[in-house]
Amino acid sequence: MSTSLQFLIAFVLAALIGALAYWRKSLSLSGAVGATILGTLTFGFGGLAGSAVLLTFFISSSALSKYKTQRKEAVAEKFSKGSTRDFWQTMANGGVAAITISLWGLTGDPAHWAAFAAAYATANADTWATELGTLAKQQPRLITNLRQKVPPGTSGGITLWGTTASFLGALLIGLVAQINGPFNFGLVLIIAIAGLLGALSDSRLGATLQATYVCETCQLETEQHPVHNCGTPTTHVRGMPWMNNDWVNFLATLTGAVFGGILVSFI
Fold this sequence. Notes:
mainly alpha, three-stranded antiparallel sheet, 8 helices
């Protein structure tokens, strides 16, 4: 198959999946555009193996975002965006992966493949931790000291249940990433560990640098700005104003990709 035909097929498939996700309200219109861009690069450079990794992340994370939504409603007040992903959310979660799979397609370097898989392992680990961790019965503790208890949904708050879910989400990506060759347990473990480390860096950034605001009406800390869901303007209380959740996700996937690319040299 010629390269141009492969990318044409990649674009058509990515556009169809993006349209389906838009219809299912997993993506906004801009999110569907972002997913089409990411899908075209991933399908085009990564073939079946890359596509399987991307689809595993998208399907599992989208399904979990719809899981027990009523129990998550109170926590959702803290998040800047809902479960319908927009353009910047798709890029924050998949931008690093798109770059690394492109490099793998051009060079065939195993480090780039590991970085690609680790980037999506991070995104999947973070999503699983958020979607399942907020359902934990135990109260989260702040990742910076592991002693301070914080309300569910607080940026940087972690639980044993959420961390376990995070590792399992990364492990799933590691297992799927094996579709392109003979099974390699060492690579699976490296991708899972890199994904977990990336997700933990997400929590660390959330606790230290991510912008946090407060709604005076609800007396609630939130990522939402400039206006809370209730209609009240929010006031910045800590973190860097430009460091929103999309930037945190991007930096976390970059961290996971770096770990994956480095650790693969040890197997």
